[in-house]
Design a protein that fits this description.
Radius of gyration: 27 Å
CATH topology of the largest domain: Methanol Dehydrogenase, Chain A
Number of helices: 3
Structural class: mainly beta
CATH class of the largest domain: Mainly Beta
CATH superfamily of the largest domain: Quinoprotein alcohol dehydrogenase-like superfamily
Strand content: 25-35%
Number of domains: 2
Helix content: under 10%
């Protein structure tokens, strides 16, 4: 599903198994290997999902596709198979399918796996593109059932407050127990609609008796608080007896009209009662009743900083946290049980993390709208960072931060600027995803960037957590942090926008899938967005890539030689060693004998030996791992050598793999 799971953490499906896309060396050879171009045109503003060797994705052209995950140019089926596409003539119902899908095998009464998405239905009365949930057979593309209308479009006149212009464009359905949840908002605030979360009963296919609206009550005239994001859920009800799972999401502004950034000439506005706008919200999954809402920006300072990114649910040693980035660039982690603030980044508003009514800080219509990604206790996000306090809003638009979920030193790492010359810097980066510490992110200039975990770098680079300062003049309020390395920067063939609001790179089966959004509207003016599959470059047929480690035991330790095949001729290979026993620590002067057309460098014998066995514990010894990486292609290979050779437990006259003669 969207963001890989119901907690929306973007921990990919490859997280529990070995994948070349979690290998920082293999990733360096990342290339585009497959392309899908829809015959019907259109763009991809949703993200693909992958299940059972199928890729599922909808397009702005109003069609939903199932593709062969091993060859995405092969269309397995398309929905609708015949008749009108899922888009209407009215501008408010003419957005096609921008809702990332959900795959399931848990629908009652349905034997086959199903795929679920939201889209406008041109046949829904009165014909303007009211939206509903569609449930299809994932194997055949046949319609299993469709819900009642969940987002209504009752007219097409801009600014008409007597019409409904609702949509579910970018909210991916969440299936949890007996309900499907989806957020409702609008596009363009013309006029602004009442934000809400709608639940569909999977047994009756009707709207469930569940109610949440962001502004006022369901039937009053209050407006605002759009829910553009996908609903998240915690796992409390599946882990702990007697507990129930709760839902989490974020909401947009409710001040109509919003204040201007200087807050000097705000038009009069009446605050809705209750007001759950500009909030991170927790509700009961059965009723929609609000458990708590965290609202850091007061109504008086609502300058339209819609909270569009959505929530991620983290289970960490310091507790269950709900994390998100607001559109003004500030990021928050709150405690899941009561909504109290755990931290704010950058820390600005004190322990409560809530700004006062007279705050001078800017909270306006800025462009931090992408959800976070999580690996372990590191949260990766596009955020304004420390420059928000003194230097302004835009600096974080084109960089990512690695944030500690629980530690006192909030910034773990940051990147340099990832995109240059973007036509709209606020939309330069898409939503990040992660595979065992490697972060993938797309750009509006049509690139896929792989970012390494700097803790795995041999020689890390440092910078100031506030990018406006260098290492030498980093102020006391900041800290020195690692600069995350760029492992790969792959231009996509069409050079189109790959960073639209909900576009994310998706990792499955050793491949990375990403769609592109044509840059000039839904019609795409004669050309299409594309779906691409990327993977590390394969060796040419018949070519091998390997090393052979030879060793001759001497009185001073082992002499080592490495013979390589398949490396870049005349190129550089990096070597490293791990699991080396404490005694003897091999001397860096140990010999290296290599093929004359290869250059092996960077012999690293250093490591944290506290967890390594002594040579005397021979029964517990692990093999020593010798790894070589071809810097030119990023391919890596390794060979294991029995630890006994390193410990001198093999007679001196004995050679390993022929020795080094």
């Amino acid at each position: 599903m969207y963001r890989a799971n119901g907690q929306r953490t973007a921990q990919t499906a490859d997280i529990t198994r070995s994948s070349p896309l979690s290998d920082p060396f293999a990733v360096k050879s990342l290339i585009v290997t497959q392309t899908f171009t829809p015959a019907e045109g259109g763009a991809f503003r949703a993200s693909p999902i992958v299940a059972n060797n199928k890729v599922f994705i909808g397009s702005t052209n109003g069609y939903f596709y199932a593709l062969d995950a091993n060859d995405i140019s092969h269309v397995l089926w398309r929905y609708p198979k015949a008749g009108s596409a899922l888009r209407a003539s009215c501008q408010y119902g003419n957005y096609g399918i921008q809702s990332s899908a959900t795959h399931t095998t848990l629908l009652p009464g349905v034997k086959d796996p199903a795929v679920i998405f939201g889209a406008p239905d041109p046949t829904a009365a009165p014909g303007f593109g009211s939206a509903r949930i569609f449930v299809l057979n994932a194997n055949t593309g046949d319609l299993i059932w469709q819900s009642d209308v969940v987002a209504q479009v009752t007219g097409c006149e801009a600014g008409n407050f007597n019409e409904l212009h609702e949509r579910i464009a970018s909210s991916s359905p969440l299936l949890w127990e007996d309900k499907i949840y989806v957020g409702v908002a609008d596009n363009g605030d013309n006029p602004i609609q009442k934000g809400k979360v709608v639940a569909v009963d999977v047994n009756s296919h009707k709207i469930a008796p569940f109610s949440f609206v962001s502004a006022g009550t369901p039937n009053d005239s209050a407006r605002g608080g759009g829910v553009w994001n996908s609903i998240a859920v915690d796992l409390q009800g599946t882990i702990f007896t007697g507990f129930t799972s709760n839902l989490y999401f974020t909401t947009g502004n409710t001040r109509v009209p919003p204040c201007q950034p200087d807050y000097q000439n705000c038009a009069p506005a009446t605050e809705p009662q209750p007001n759950y706008g500009l909030s991170l919200v927790s509700v009961n999954k059965d009723t929609g009743q609000v458990n708590w809402h965290f609202q850091p920006i007061p109504f008086a300072r609502d300058g339209d900083p819609d909270w569009a990114a959505g929530a991620a649910v983290l289970t960490e040693p310091c507790g269950e946290l709900i994390v998100s980035v607001m559109k003004d660039g500030w990021a928050y982690a709150v405690n899941a049980n009561d909504g109290s603030c755990r931290w704010q980044f950058p820390p600005t508003a004190g322990p409560s993390c809530k700004f006062p009514a007279n705050t001078p800080t800017r909270h306006s219509d800025d462009d931090y709208k992408q959800p976070v990604a999580v690996f372990g206790d590191t949260i990766v996000m596009k955020a304004g960072g420390e420059p928000l306090i003194d230097q302004g809003v835009p600096d974080g638009y084109t960089r990512l931060y690695g944030i500690s979920a629980c530690g006192d030193n909030r910034v773990r790492w940051r990147t340099e600027q990832l995109v240059k010359n973007a036509s709209d810097p606020g939309y330069a980066l898409g939503a990040p995803t992660m595979s065992k510490g490697i972060t993938y992110v797309t750009t509006s200039t049509g690139h896929v960037i792989a970012i390494g975990d700097p803790s795995r770098d041999v020689v890390p680079t440092f910078g100031c957590s506030n990018p406006y300062f260098g290492v030498e003049d980093c102020p006391p309020s900041s800290q020195l942090v690692q600069i995350a390395p760029i492992l790969a920067d792959v231009p996509l063939p069409d050079s189109q926008d790959a960073a639209s609001l909900r576009i994310e790179p998706v990792i499955a089966n050793g491949k990375l899938y990403v769609g592109t959004n044509c840059s000039d509207g839904l019609e795409c003016r004669g050309f299409s967005g594309h779906l691409y599959a990327l993977e590390p470059a394969a060796l040419p047929p018949g070519q091998t890539f390997e090393i052979t480690v030879g060793m001759t035991e001497t009185q001073t330790g082992p002499d080592i030689c490495v013979r390589g095949t398949g490396f870049t001729a005349g190129g550089i290979a990096q070597m490293s060693y791990s699991n080396i026993p404490r005694r003897p620590a091999p001397a860096s002067g140990g010999s290296q004998r290599i093929n004359p057309d290869r250059t092996f460098n960077h012999v690293d014998f250093s490591q944290d030996r506290s967890s390594v066995q002594d040579c005397s514990d021979s029964e517990a010894q692990q093999d020593v791992v010798v790894q070589a990486v071809d810097v030119g292609t990023g391919r890596s290979t390794n060979m294991r050598v029995p630890a006994a050779y390193w410990c001198g437990n093999i007679p001196v006259a004995t050679n390993y793999n022929g020795g080094c003669n």
